Amino acid sequence: MPTITIRKATIDDAPALSKICLLTGDAGASAEHLHDYGELPGLVYAVPYVNLPTTWGFVMVDDTINEVVGYILGSKDTRAYEKYAAEHWWPPLAEKYPPSMAVKPDDERYMKLLQNMHTASAANIAFAAAHLHIDILAQYQKQGWGRKLIKTGIEYLEGEGVEGGGVWLGLDPRNTGAKKFYEKLGFVGIQGADENQMGVKFEDFI
């Protein structure tokens, strides 16, 4: 059995975060076949969280092979994160990856997203200022590590006194297993947001 530890994420973890994001990017399965530019999912959903202000993160490390095999990442202040990213992170990436470069549809989708990044709804922000992303490689799932990562993140956010006393995330609607997992931990739908948004108040985490 592998020996797993959880530690704070650092900028040096960026390549591993990007790889995990790609290997779980198709509703939990590998998205490698969907991209010629495999770095794109990570540049949107993982790598910013070890580069930009207001962010936080923890990684799972398999000590037997000394590799990062999972992560939880997020921002303590989503609106501040969105503002900074809109000014400093997305513009150079949008210039580097114009949609005209894309051959595969998923590359084109991400490249267009870089030009017009989605932002959280008012309902999400009313629920809590903080959001998260979590990914674990398939061979390490269903072993309790997802709950441990989220517990680690929640304990950190509680210590930071984040506005709203909770945290939320967005779901891929195809990943029904993930929704059931979050529900078991106390996550609920967010009133006024679309059905793919879920959140948990820290006091309700199971």
Structure description:
This protein has a 7-stranded mixed β-sheet, with helices on both faces. The chain has about 210 residues and is of the alpha+beta class. It is built from 8 helices and 7 strands, in the order βααββααααβαβαββ. The model has no long low-confidence stretch (mean pLDDT about 95). It starts with a strand and ends in a 5-residue tail after the last strand. Helix 4 crosses helix 5. It has one domain (about 5-165): Gcn5-related N-acetyltransferase (GNAT) (Aminopeptidase), CATH 3.40.630.30. The chain has helices at about 15-25, 40-45, 80-90, 90-95, 105-115, 120-125, 145-160, 175-185, and strands spanning about 5-10, 55-60, 65-75, 130-135, 165-170, 190, 195-200. The protein is about 35% helix and about 20% strand.
Reading the helices and strands in chain order gives EHHEEHHHHEHEHEE
Task: Please state the overall shape, judged from the principal axes of the Cα atoms.
Answer: globular
Spatial strand sequence of the major β-sheet: 1-2-3-4-5-7-6
> At the fourth CATH level, what is the homologous superfamily?
Gcn5-related N-acetyltransferase (GNAT)
Would you summarize the structure shown here?
The chain is of the alpha+beta class and 206 residues long. It is built from eight helices and seven strands; from the N terminus they run βααββααααβαβαββ.
